[in-house]
Design goal:
There is one protein chain. By secondary structure, the chain is α+β, with helices and mostly antiparallel strands. Helices cover about 30% and strands about 20% of the residues. The strands form two sheets. The chain has a four-stranded mixed sheet. The chain has a two-stranded antiparallel sheet with strand order 5-6. Helix 1 runs parallel beside helix 3. It is globular and about 55 Å long. The two termini are about 40 Å apart. About 10% of the residues have low confidence.
Length: about 170
């Protein structure tokens, strides 16, 4: 699988860095609660949609692209990307990767009245050749002990055995 596309609704405006700040301390406390709840909902929605799109397969993307559909005035690119941060966290959790490993391949803002209010996040694997082989590939199994099924398994040395499951090596 070279790419994975998930379609999500726009996040609430409270997740925008340019959201208006409340004027009272009580208003600030309520706004922070709403923002925390919106982040949690966005992570859960993205996790669910990503698991659904993966359909039991695995993917290790290297890049992601955000496509923001809008009507009216063109939004700021950095605000669109910041509003999608919770979506990226949830999708990366479903993919089983850390979002620090992903590079942003860009953000496209598309004026489309039919799809306004939607966001598409496209995960891509842009590695070629030997770099495209993941640790799950059987061609790279020479670095693991034969009994281990752990994804992070690797041999530490000829006398130390597997670093993840501690099998092999000299006792």
């Amino acid at each position: 699988m070279d790419s994975l596309k998930i379609t999500l609704p726009h996040t609430p405006r409270c997740l925008s860095p340019n959201a208006k700040a409340p004027l009272t301390p009580r208003g600030a406390m309520v706004a922070e609660y709403k923002k925390t709840a919106a982040k949690s909902r966005a992570r859960n929605i993205a996790w669910g949609r990503t698991c659904e799109a993966l359909n039991g397969r695995r993917m290790q993307p290297t890049h992601y692209r955000v496509i923001w559909f809008y009507k009216g005035n063109k939004p700021d690119a950095d605000n669109c990307l910041a509003r999608c941060k919770a979506y990226l966290d949830g999708a990366c959790k479903a993919l089983g990767i850390d979002d620090r490993t992903l590079d942003c391949a860009g953000i496209d803002r598309v004026h489309d009245l039919a799809r306004a209010g939607q966001v598409e996040i496209v995960f891509e694997d842009r590695r070629k050749g030997w770099d495209a082989l993941t640790p799950h590939s059987p061609k790279l199994s020479f670095g693991r002990c034969e009994d281990c099924v752990n994804d992070k398994c690797s041999l530490r040395g000829h006398d130390q055995g597997c670093s993840a499951c501690m099998k092999g090596g000299q006792q």
